[in-house]
């Protein structure tokens, strides 16, 4: 007989049919009730054991964390909280779990403790709910692009260019670190390295995605992204996943329209497809918020907040307008911001972004037309020659979730910009070729996948929405 998942059994009409189910024991109460979970859904399957008919030695092995196979009949449940249960006829122990040693006991564990048990934390309700939402979001993203005629492009993970010009990259090299070959000037000679040049893990697939957009028209990448910035925040990872669509002939307005429609669509998808998990996460968040001071609690419950974002238009505001709002804001005047906004040109910190979204506009905000000086080299220069066609999307509780722009498609302007920043033309000759042969207006953006998962699940720390977080001083597992 084949096995059935807990999820399927829970939605089956019981008629004393024989069933076989695998799973892990969540709890074993009164030597009688096994709460069984196999990860297929949040809810456990109750399996009722008549202990007189089982060997005592076998019952002793049914501990929290043990993997077991249960045979039995599916009947209507007598208890509250479930419609069906299994009357157990046979139990096979795949593998026990010593209750003295198994770290995930049926009680509340702190997120910090669970991070140290990242290989086992998926057995908790919170992490299984988060990871099912994450998986569903990932599917919704691919589906959105497929339905809108985008092609998926796998951009390289090892690259020779620094797309963001930030210089915070992980080097990829096979040279002997103790004794690398040197040039006459005494520098490491990367000509002798694996690729014959310096290479890094990618900080963005954008530049390569641009080349494909200028042939396939509408493309996206969805891949791992690496940043060696020493940021120990609840919003930064050294390894994260980024979704980067790139569209030929789109200008910045089209780009904003696409980003807004895309985000709303995938959020709607999880609202409909992850109802049980979201309700659980909403409750978790409510409990957690009870421990916070009133002023820090969010005004909306999780699902309400997701609906709000899915149903309301994002506010579009130019950088210049935003600076005026911030300059005249209470926290700026009362010197409550850590970084005070004094003049046009200042880079926005997350405290400013969150003020705009959470206090001022109280909805997602798209900021556009930033000063050229604080943005990457590839963004299209506006007629004012001071600002570029950049856009960032800011979300409540998260801050920046998307960064994007219309790209500089004019060869001479781009070359000039690269010169002024000391970026060598020969490093990016292929990128410049796009501007020499059939150049056109084009735009794209990057959405940080984990920040989206953070928002959708209401979790507070980005380390808890990726299976194995990579952060400074932390690459266990
Ligand atoms: O704003 P960023 O740096 O933009 C780019 O990389 C562009 N090349 C994207 C493009 O236009 N194709 O990064 C985009 C998004 C951010 O808005 C943020 O959501 C996320 O990536 N992100 C991070 N997420 C987690 N940890 C980090 N260290 C992140 N850095 C950026
Ligand atoms: Mg950015």
| Element order: H for helix, E for strand | HEEEHEEHHEEEEHEEHHHEHHHEEEHHEH
Largest sheet: 8 strands, mixed
Bound molecules: 4-amino-1,4-dioxobutan-2-aminium adenosine-5'-monophosphate, magnesium ion
Oligomer description = single chain
CA(first)-CA(last) distance: 36 Å
Q: What is the overall number of helices?
A: 14
Structural class: alpha+beta
The largest sheet has its strands arranged as: 6-10-11-16-15-14-13-12
The shape is globular
Proportion of β residues?
Answer: 15-25%
Helix content: 25-40%
Q: Could you describe the 3D structure shown?
A:
This protein is an alpha+beta fold and 477 residues long. The protein has 14 helices and 16 strands. The strands form 3 sheets. An 8-stranded mixed beta sheet has the order 6-10-11-16-15-14-13-12, sandwiched between helices. It has a 5-stranded mixed barrel with strand order 1-2-3-5-4. It has a 3-stranded antiparallel beta sheet with strand order 7-9-8, with no helix packed on it. Strand 2 and strand 3 form a beta hairpin. Helix 4 packs across helix 6. The radius of gyration is 27 Å and the shape is globular. The model has no long low-confidence stretch (mean pLDDT 96). The structure holds 4-amino-1,4-dioxobutan-2-aminium adenosine-5'-monophosphate (4AD) and magnesium ion. 4-amino-1,4-dioxobutan-2-aminium adenosine-5'-monophosphate (4AD) binds next to strand 11, strand 15, strand 16 and helix 14.
């Amino acid at each position: 007989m084949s096995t059935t998942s807990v999820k399927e059994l829970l939605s089956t009409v019981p008629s004393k049919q024989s069933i076989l189910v695998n799973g892990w024991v969540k709890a074993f109460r009164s030597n009688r009730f096994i709460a069984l979970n196999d990860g297929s859904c949040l809810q456990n399957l109750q399996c009722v054991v008549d202990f007189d008919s089982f060997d005592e030695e076998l019952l002793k092995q049914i501990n929290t964390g043990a993997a077991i196979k249960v045979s039995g009949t599916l009947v209507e449940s007598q208890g509250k909280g479930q419609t069906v249960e299994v009357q157990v006829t046979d139990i096979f122990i795949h593998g026990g779990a010593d209750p003295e040693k198994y770290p995930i006991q049926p009680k509340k564990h702190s997120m910090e403790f669970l991070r140290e048990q990242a290989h086992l934390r998926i057995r908790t309700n919170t992490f299984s709910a988060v990871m099912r939402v994450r998986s569903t979001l990932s599917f919704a993203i691919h589906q959105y692009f497929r339905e809108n005629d985008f092609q998926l492009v796998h951009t390289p993970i090892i690259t020779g260019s620094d797309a963001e010009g930030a210089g915070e990259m992980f080097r990829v090299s096979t040279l002997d670190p103790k004794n690398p070959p040197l040039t006459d000037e005494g520098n490491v000679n990367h000509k002798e390295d694996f690729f014959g040049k310096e290479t890094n893990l990618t900080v963005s697939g954008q530049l390569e995605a641009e080349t494909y957009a200028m042939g396939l028209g509408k493309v996206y990448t969805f891949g791992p992204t690496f940043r060696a910035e020493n940021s120990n925040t609840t919003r930064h990872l050294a390894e994260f996943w980024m979704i980067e669509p790139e569209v030929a002939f789109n200008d910045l307005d089209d780009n904003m329209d696409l980003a807004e429609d895309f985000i709303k669509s995938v959020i709607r998808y999880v609202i409909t497809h992850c109802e049980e998990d979201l309700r659980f996460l909403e409750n978790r968040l409510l409990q957690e918020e009870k421990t916070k001071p009133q002023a820090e609690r969010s005004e909306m419950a999780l699902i309400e907040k997701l609906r709000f974002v899915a149903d309301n238009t994002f506010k579009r505001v130019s950088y210049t307008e935003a600076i005026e709002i911030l300059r005249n804001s209470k926290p700026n005047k009362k010197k409550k911001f850590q970084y005070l906004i004094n003049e046009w040109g200042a880079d926005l910190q997350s405290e400013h972004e969150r003020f705009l979204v959470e206090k001022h506009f109280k909805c997602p905000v798209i900021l556009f037309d930033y000063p050229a000086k604080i943005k990457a080299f590839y963004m299209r220069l506006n007629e004012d020659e001071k600002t570029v066609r950049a856009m960032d999307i800011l979300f409540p509780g998260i801050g920046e979730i998307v960064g994007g722009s219309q790209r500089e498609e004019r060869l001479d302007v781009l070359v000039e910009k690269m010169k002024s920043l000391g970026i060598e033309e020969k490093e990016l000759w292929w990128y410049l070729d796009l501007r020499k042969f059939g150049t056109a207006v084009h735009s794209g953006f990057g959405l940080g996948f984990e920040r989206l998962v953070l928002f959708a699940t209401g979790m507070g720390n980005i380390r808890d929405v990726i299976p194995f977080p990579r952060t400074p001083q932390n690459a266990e597992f």
